[in-house]
Specification:
By secondary structure, this protein is α/β, with parallel strands linked by helices. It is built from 16 helices and ten strands. Bound molecules: inosine and zinc ion.
């Protein structure tokens, strides 16, 4: 079993992290006080616990209700820049070398920001955070994924925004929010547009809802990756553990190397997995799916990339070789151009593990 310190010391790659799910409790408290937003509790320590407790109530809908308080404090250029800067600094401090951070611009317009103004603010925050991390001796590359809310009707507009910013820090598109009742096919026009533009996207699917949602995301919408996708396990027959049998959809996902953006702690909180030890990540990794490990919402899950890895190491006995496999998998699956991904794998990810094993000899 690896310690948190050992895990912090090796390079990690994060593909599924929500900007509004990773705000520091202190920052939520400070901005809320300044703008007069009422919080359920005021002390930052208590606030961190409140988010985790409220988000841990067992359903995705309850989990998502907590975002009201983070989104509320991210409505101006100044506050979005701050949250984005702190996000990158925190990730870099945890040893994340590449991160795709998603958020939904349409939720940040209540104080008069425009969609482009909001994206520019996050871009500025990422640039400041990257520079601050660099000064502290940490190198990180951070990119945005623009999310559209699946219960709203702005997905085509947000997809257009993502394409407009494709050379300005945005690498992809996503849909998120409550899954039940809002199938991905509601947003087919956005996905078809992205295909025509040769753009990349992931879809939150197979979290609260099972195989039909994954099937739609892949076969109707053509998603490059699956946000969570954890319920693909429902299409794997493990009644004979020595010879697991894959159904057609699971086989397709594995054959096509479709990346699964698994988020262990988040899945336990929303009831998608009973516990970390029972999380399908172990089986899916053993079966050779393109598994990646992610944080989802660091605030709501009181977690970090290193902590997620530590929990898996504890539950499944993973060592540095496994962490390296997860990190290379994630870097291969990133929405960065191929040559940049390759350079990250060869120059940053792999050397980080090689040096590490030499150190421990
Ligand atoms: O795990 C999740 N499943 C579905 N939607 C989510 C999850 N985590 C966060 N969001 C939603 O995505 C929005 C943009 O970041 C958040 O405001 C939240 O409503
Ligand atoms: Zn998510």
């Amino acid at each position: 079993m690896l310690t948190l310190e050992e895990i912090r010391g090796v390079p990690k790659v994060l593909l599924h992290d929500h900007l509004d799910g990773g705000v520091r409790p202190q920052t939520v408290a400070e901005i809320a006080e300044r703008i007069g937003h009422r919080l359920p509790v005021e002390d930052p320590d208590d606030l961190g616990r409140w988010f985790a407790d409220a988000a841990g109530s067992g359903t995705l809908v309850r989990y998502l209700e907590t975002f009201e308080h983070t989104v509320a404090v991210m409505q101006t250029t100044e506050d979005l820049v701050r949250v984005a800067r702190e996000c990158v600094v925190d990730l870099a401090g945890d040893g994340v070398v590449y991160a795709e951070v998603r958020w939904a611009p349409e939720q940040h317009l209540t104080a008069g920001l425009t969609l482009t103004g909001a994206v520019d603010a996050v871009r500025e925050g990422f640039a400041q955070g990257t520079a601050e991390a660099q000064r502290a001796g940490r190198t990180i590359v951070a990119r945005q994924i623009l999310t559209a809310m699946r219960h709203q009707a702005r997905s085509l507009e947000i997809a257009e925004l993502a394409v407009a910013y494709r050379d300005s820090g945005v690498v992809g598109f996503d849909i998120a929010g409550a899954e039940a009742g809002y199938p991905p096919t509601r947003h087919l026009d956005a996905f078809e547009y992205l295909h025509r533009e040769n753009a990349h996207f992931t879809i939150h699917a197979g979290e609260a809802f099972g195989l039909p949602s994954i099937w739609q995301a892949i076969q109707w919408c053509g998603a490059d990756r699956l946000g969570h996708g954890v319920r693909i396990i429902d299409d794997v027959d493990t009644s004979d553990p020595s010879a697991p049998r894959l159904g057609r959809l699971a086989a397709y996902v594995r054959d096509k190397r479709i990346p699964l953006e698994l988020c262990p702690s988040s899945n336990v909180q929303t009831g998608a997995a009973a516990s970390i030890a029972e999380h399908p990540v172990g089986t899916l990794a053993d079966l050779g799916f393109r598994v990646t490990v992610n944080t989802d919402n660091r605030l709501m899950s009181q977690t970090s990339m290193s902590r997620e890895m530590a929990l898996l190491s504890e539950a499944f006995g993973y060592g540095l070789d496994d962490l390296r496999w997860f990190s290379v998998n994630a870097m291969k699956s990133a929405f960065l151009p191929f040559d940049e991904r390759l350079a990250m794998i060869q120059d940053v990810v792999k050397p980080g593990y090689d040096t590490r094993s030499l150190d421990t000899l």
